[in-house]
Design brief:
Elements (H helix, E strand, L loop, with lengths): L18 E5 L7 H19 L5 H23 L1 E6 L2 E6 L5 E6 L3 E7 L2 H6 L1 E8 L6 E7 L1 H11 L1
Antiparallel strand pairs: 1-2, 2-3, 3-4, 5-6, 6-7
Helix pairs in contact: 1-2
Length: 156
């Protein structure tokens, strides 16, 4: 076995495929969808329970709230992250599966970014700075991004 953890034929070993961490974007990543769903639901409730509008309009607002909630569920369900001993995996999409595998040998450092709203919801973005000046990869909506960064840094 070579020093980089790969066999002489460059096939990943069972130890290389072992998952160190895996997750999905946190629910807080879709706060804008939840906000629009709440607004639509409140407008629908006002129309149905107070005589302030047409019931057809209330139904449209109710449908809109359902669509926003459904979109948040769909986006979360179709996004997945995993860290193995050999690479960081990012998969997204339902039909046109977009999967990216970033080998640990290409990662120079890992860091966390959190804006004020991210801190409020306890989420952030894990930024993978790549060697050779390549564009950094981002894992968005991660709960406790500092913990994930430490796990990646320990593998580098």
């Amino acid at each position: 076995m070579k020093a980089d953890g790969m066999t002489s034929h460059n096939f990943p070993t069972e130890e290389d495929r072992r998952v160190v961490w895996e997750g999905r974007p946190a629910w807080g990543e879709y706060v804008f969808l939840w906000f629009f769903a709440l607004i639509s639901a409140v407008r629908a409730l006002f129309i149905f329970f107070l005589p302030v509008g047409d019931p057809g309009t209330g139904a449209i607002y109710g449908l809109g709230a359902g669509l926003f909630i459904g979109l948040a569920l769909f986006l979360r369900r179709t996004s997945r992250y995993a860290v193995t001993r050999a690479a960081v995996h990012r998969a997204a999409g339902f039909l046109g599966r977009d999967e990216k595998i970033i080998p640990l040998q290409k990662i120079a450092a890992a860091g966390a970014e959190q804006g004020p709203l991210d801190r409020l919801f306890g989420i952030g973005t894990v930024v993978l700075n790549l060697k050779g000046g390549e564009q950094a990869e981002r894992l968005r909506g991660i709960r406790d991004p500092e913990v994930v960064c430490r796990k990646i840094e320990a593998l580098l």
